[in-house]
Predict the 3D structure of the following.
Amino acid sequence: MATASAAISASNLQMDYMKLLIVQLQNQNPLDPLDNNEMASQLAQFSQLQQLESMNTSFAKVLATTELTYANSLLGKEVTFTPETTTGAADITSGVVEQVYNNIDGEIFLRAGNITLSLKNIISVKN
């Protein structure tokens, strides 16, 4: 998932822009004022950025729900996967999914026998 906390949100960026705009308006040259069309265009771009940020958050939630639904659908099914070993090597292994759970970071994991695997490690699924 995207790290939303690391990125500057559109609303924070817009607030910084508004503060800068106020300072510019207070200190502008009366004989050469700021262009109203340019300001309106920039505000519209911030509005679009906020909407895109909101859509991105919504899509991330839909994706997380879809992944969890898919993982739950694998319960009781035999999956073929490539678990990572402590040496980093990957072998192809099969097992029946017995448990689905999330870790602290919200990543979905499956338990097949005594092996824990991620959805990305699954190669095939059998009924």
Remarks:
- The mean pLDDT is 83.
- The radius of gyration is 25 Å.
